[in-house]
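During the reporting period the student researcher (J.K.) took over the structure-prediction task from the postdoctoral fellow and processed the backlog of single-chain submissions. One of the processed entries is reproduced below for the supervisory committee.
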Amino acid sequence: MSDKELLIPASQTDSVAINAQTRRGRIQMLLLLLACATPVIASYLAYYVIKPDWGKTNFGTLVYPAQEFNSAWLDVPLQGKWTLLIARPAGECQIKDEKCIEAFFLMRQVKVAMGRENKRVQLLWINTDGKPVDPEVAKAYDEQVAGFKIVALPRDPKLKTDFEAWLNKEGGGQQIQLIDPSPAKMMYFPVTNSPKEFAFIKKDLEKLLKLNHKGEKL
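J.K. obtained the following structure tokens:
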């Protein structure tokens, strides 16, 4: 035994040992509680923070309830067909504008991917600034070549305001919007150049065409 240990009363030596044991016991207890609580914490984060969509099978964002389309808004019939709609200003949508061209290309490819069912789908570009369409864009994405119908916004101020409110509702204004044959907006998709996401959009539309013929006029 060292001189220092001889100077420490026996009662204090016992107290120090007891305190050390108590600390070790508390640490072990905390580790045990943490191990038991980890699954609970993980499930809490998964449900309240990550918020998975249990049972979700669609890639596109469902619009519920569907948002009815007013046929007076645009000079093109939407009733009776499935319509993929995009809104872009012609003044900015030049052939070198990758973001705009990506949207058109994606829509065209989705329509083509429907195979024999592609006639049930029409493509609609809303020219939001009314400026002339770039001739190169028109050549690549007109109705004869790619199936796009290009229309302007309503001229009537009240109809224009109502249409823009409908178009941009729930932040969908820059997305590719799917209008059902009733007609009403029922889903929208992001503009993407990802092959995987293209496959998801294709799958969503194929499923809808297969399960729902109601109100169609081919």
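The committee noted the following: The chain has two domains: 19-54, 61-211.
J.K. will present the remaining backlog at the next meeting.
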